[in-house]
Amino acid sequence: MQTTVATYGSDKNGLIWGYRFTPEGVAEIIDADAVPIFLGTQEEGADGAFLWLHFSLSNQATDRFFRRSLQLPEGFLESLRSEVGSTRLELDDDRLVAVVHDVLFESAFDASDVGTTSLCISPNMVVSARLRPLRSVDQLRSAVRSGQKFRSPVELLAHLLRDQASVLGDIVRKSSARVDQIEDRLLANRVSTDRKELGSLRRTLVRLQRLLAPEPTALFRLLNRPPAWISRDDVADLRQAAEEFSTAIGDSATLVERVKLIQEELAALVNEQTGRTLFVLTVVTVLALPINLVAGLFGMNVGGMPLAHSARGFSVIVTFLVALTAVLAYLAFGKRRD
User: Fold this and answer.
1) CA distance linking residue 27 with residue 110, whole number of Å
2) Which parts of the chain span the membrane according to its record (predicted)?
3) What phi, psi does 129 have (nearest 5°)?
4) Residue 185: inside a domain, yes or no?
5) Are residues 43 and 182 in the same domain?
6) Domain that holds residue 235
7) Do residues 148 and 204 both lie within one domain?
């Protein structure tokens, strides 16, 4: 009887895909068994070749392979067990450890559709690990498979950050289109369930800002004091990626402020309609007060009731009440143009 082992799209060691980049920047597919051989013959990327290994954290074999075959810093291993929180980008044992956040591959831009990718970058290797498929990582893989060349692991990281900024920009563009539709309905005085949709959009954008905003700050801090093995060209690529990310986050912040203003306008419109409704109800109550008062008095059936024996008593009372109601209605509505 054979036992089926769940690999979650990865091999027996948890590797989803692996690429070896030649000194010319061309990518070649590599499996997990060839990684120790490459590391044994490589001296800190002396010939310019490096690896990109992408692992699945859903596979329990991933952690065993990390500890058995790869000498990874403890900060990277701790990041694999951490919850989705703020972004980290720091040096650990002269290696760059990054924890970046991104939306899921099949995300509908919900506030909960955010995942984490942990990266460990050294002069001759990039190790990335994730629990669920993420959009920007898949875009980076598509670029590698299409033949795009990468000269160093840091350039690979810069391309990933640019893809991440592109994903965030796409979310902002689609959210802006939805906000435009809501704003058009608002200008037409059509108050519906748009407040709920606006609240969901605002929560999504604020959550993305909270998760992604620390990245440019951490990146600029790294650029001020880069490790010795990061070249000037790599520093320039990282700086450009940080600027693109800052622009995307700034656009997101602007959209959040716009959503906030629309929410305030919707709240003001709802309050105005509520106030108008209460005013009408109050006036109707006041107009009906004389009729109810007179009806109550004449319904007491006691002696001395005025006009009780007059043939025109009912007509006189009705005419008086109609005239009094008309005067009160004119005083209430006559001077209101709206």
Assistant:
1) 34
2) 278-299, 311-333
3) -145, 140
4) yes
5) yes
6) 15-268
7) yes
